[in-house]
Specification:
This is Beta-lactamase family protein. It comes from Paractinoplanes ovalisporus. InterPro entries: AmpC-like, Beta-lactam-related, Beta-lactam/transpept-like. It holds the Pfam family Beta-lactamase. With 455 residues, the chain is α+β, with helices and mostly antiparallel strands. It has two domains: 351 residues, DD-peptidase/beta-lactamase superfamily (Beta-lactamase); 87 residues, Lipocalin, CATH 2.40.128. It is 28% helix and 25% strand. It contains 13 helices and 20 strands. It has an eight-stranded antiparallel sheet, with helices on both faces. An eight-stranded antiparallel sheet has the order 13-14-15-16-17-18-19-20. β16 and β17 form a beta hairpin.
Amino acid sequence: MTTDNDHWNRRLAEIAERHDVPGATLGILHGEELTEAAYGVLNLRTGVETTTDSLFQIGSISKVWTATLVMQLVDEGKLQLDAPLVEVLPELRLSDPGVTAKVTMRHLLTHTSGIDGDIFTDTGRGDDCLEKYTAVLADAAQNHPLEATWSYCNSGFSLAGRVVEKLTGGTWDAAVRERLVTPLGLAHTVTLPEEALLHRAAAGHMTQEGKQVVAPVWGIPRSAGPAGSIVSTAADLLAFARMHLDGGVAADGSRVLSADSAAAMAEHQVELPDKHTLGDSWGLGWERADWDGHRLIGHDGNTIGQAAFLRILPERGIAVALLTNGGNGAKLYEELYREIFDELAGVPVPHPLGPPATPVDVDPTPFVGVYERASIRQEMSVGDDGPVMRFSITGPLAEVLQEKPVDYRMVAVEPNLFVCQDPATGNWVPATFYELPTGEKYVHFGARATPRCAS
């Protein structure tokens, strides 16, 4: 392995610049050795330089931290993964009474509850925000029947955070601090914006008229904290990853999580309908991916103008973290991780799914229609130039992001599988059309299962 920091600083800079990423940090953990690199600026408006101790939003990687808190409570005998949540939250009310009675923590950690996953209602900055958010879920749609399929669910992790609060007697933020940040000795990991302000913190950036501009909002609502509000450095994130690699033991030898729970989090729980976006299966919080016969775990995170990537190869004791604040972070991740994992382990990073070399003849008309859930509306139509997916953000999220509908050109790959090209980045996004055993039609796009409207 090339452990020279200058080498990876140079490669990070070269690739990040090519993909319009304003600033980024990289961390590579290989056994006991940590390599760090930094590039660019934290904020194009202020020009503050990115350093390795700069804080970025890790977004949905926070879900693995929340899952770790949950498994600590399982270790302590305070929670059972397969017990109905109403045993801990008797006040829980969901739109489907049957789901209210049966939904478990395992459903939440594996994204199989069916609760509409993108409820971003801001319930305030108070310590009662998750309590209020849980009450909001009474009006959330049931996106799919319990356990019927897999759909990425932010809402479920906010609910899991509320369970953590009930069982610890404090806030989710306090649980992260007391149960993970302090035991792991993390000096640069926080959950609240007023804490992030005490450090060098990155601002997100978005593309506007072909240029990167500072995002209009810094962070997500506090009610979404357990799903995505941790702010950290690459080194601190890798210290968390190392604890999982070491079977739940911190660097100082203290036990943070039982070996059984650390192993269970990485074990197979459910297959994914779309195996081309995030991985092939899910554990208890962890994404699972197969890279040429090598099993990896990890997670990605996306907030408002920031993107984070974490991949762990347990068989070789390798973990890599990349934190970015705009531009095409996905392309930076793909190119950089391809170099790193080839050099460290000879393991190839799969190429994203794209159009087939030879066109595939598929009739798209059976899939034409409107597919909708909270915050998202997808309209598939067929025009003179072929099938198109119009993707619109709706509801509270639309007010924050202020983004116009986007038309994705679609190319068939298999009878039920298309790839859709993002006109802004050129990236290809898979769209899988399928039916539940009970006959309901869905499209799986962006890791979410979206039902077809009856009309």
